[in-house]
Amino acid sequence: MTPVIAEDYWEPYINSPRMDSDHLSPDRLRSSDLNELLQPDFMEIKRFGISPMQAIGAVFKDETVLSGMDELNKEAWRAVAKFNNLPPPDDDHMELAMGMLPERAIQQTFQWTDDWGETKRWSAELSEAYARMLPEANFTATPGAVDWLTALNQYQVPCVVCSSVARAQVVTMLEKAGLSNMFQEIVAADDGCETQEQAYLLASLKLKRPPMKCVVFADEPKEVSIAHDATAKAIAVVSKNSGNGGLRRDFSHADLRVGGLDELRISQLKEIADREPEENWMVPELQPEPFWGPGD
Predict the structure, then answer these.
(1) Residue 87: pLDDT band by 50, 70, 90 thresholds?
(2) Which residues contact residue 160 at a Cβ distance below 8 angstroms, ignoring those fewer than 6 apart?
(3) Claim to verify: residue 123 and residue 249 sit in the same structural domain
(4) 196-213 confidence digits (pLDDT tens)
(5) Are 123 and 145 in the same domain?
(6) Which long-range CB contacts under 8 A does 75-81 form with residues at least 24 apart?
C-alpha cells in the first residue's frame, strides 16, 4: 500500500494565520516555517507511533534513480549550439550547467550571449530539443532503485523525485525506467523552483513531512550541503564516476555515503532521519550554488 498525499499541498500555508496565502510560491518557503507547520497532528502521531517509517519523507534527485539523463541533456545542448552556429560546450561546462536555469548556463557558463532576447529564445529551443529527443532516449533504473523504492513503498514512506525538466517529461522518463508507480509526488520545472533548496523544501511540503524528517538522496557534494541548509538529512549516492568537471568530489559531510541504492537498508534510513540536525554541517565549495532549471 502506497501512502496517500494531500492533493492541495499548500494547505498548511493557507490555513496558517501567520502566512501570506495570497502569494504562495517556492521562493517563499522557509525550512523553519515548514518544520513548524508540518508537525504531525494527534492522529498522525498515533499512526506514526504504530508505523514510524511513515513519518519520514524520501526525496530523490532524478539522477539517483534514472540512468540516461546525462547524455540526453548533453545532446539537447549540442543541438541548440549547432542550430545557432554557437561553439559547442565541452563536457566540463555541461557538467557545470547541470541543475542551472538554462538562461544562466547560456550567459554565464557557456558565455554565448548577454542579450536577454537571444537567451530566452535559446532556452526555449533547449526545451524543444529535449522534448523532441525524449521519445527515442533510453532510460533505465539505477542499480538497486527498483528494490529500494519497492521497500520504501511497502513501509509506506512517501517518496518524491526532483527534476530540472518539465513534469510531463519526468513522467515519460519514469515510465521508460519502470518507476512510474514508485513516487507519490514530483517536483519539476513546472513548479517554478529557482534553486535546489526551494525544490527540496517544496518536496517536503508536497509530502507533508517537515524538512528535518526528510532524507535527500543526492549525487553531488553541493546537493548534500543544500539538503542540510534545508535542515534535511542527506545520503550521498557515489557512483564509480567520481569526477565533476575535473574536480575531486568530497562527500565527507553526508550523513551516509553509499555506492548505490542497492547498499541501503530500511534501518539505516530510520536512524538517519531520527538524527538531530547538526549546526556544523559544512561542504568544500566547488562552484557557486546553481539555479534550479531548466524551465518548461
Answers:
(1) very high
(2) 57, 58, 59, 60, 183, 184, 185, 186, 187, 203, 206, 207
(3) no
(4) 899 999 999 999 999 999
(5) no
(6) 75/129, 75/133, 76/126, 76/129, 76/130, 76/133, 77/126, 79/125, 79/129, 79/133, 80/122, 80/125, 80/126, 80/129, 81/112
Question: Mind listing the pLDDT tens digit for each residue in 6-36?
Answer: 447 777 666 666 555 556 788 888 999 999 9
Asked whether residue 20 is domain-assigned, the answer is no
Q: How far apart (Å, rounded) are the C-alpha atoms in residues 11 and 7?
A: 9
Query: What phi-psi label fits residue 56: left (phi over 0), alpha (psi between -120 and 50 degrees) or beta?
Result: beta
Residue-number span of the structural domain to which 116 is assigned: 69-136
Number of domains in the chain: 2
| Pairing of the two strands 185-187 and 159-162 | parallel
Residue 12 cell numbers, joined: 498548511
Report residue 6 as a C-alpha cell: 494531500
> How far apart are the C-alpha atoms of 230 and 32, rounded to whole Å?
9
* pTM for the whole structure: 0.81
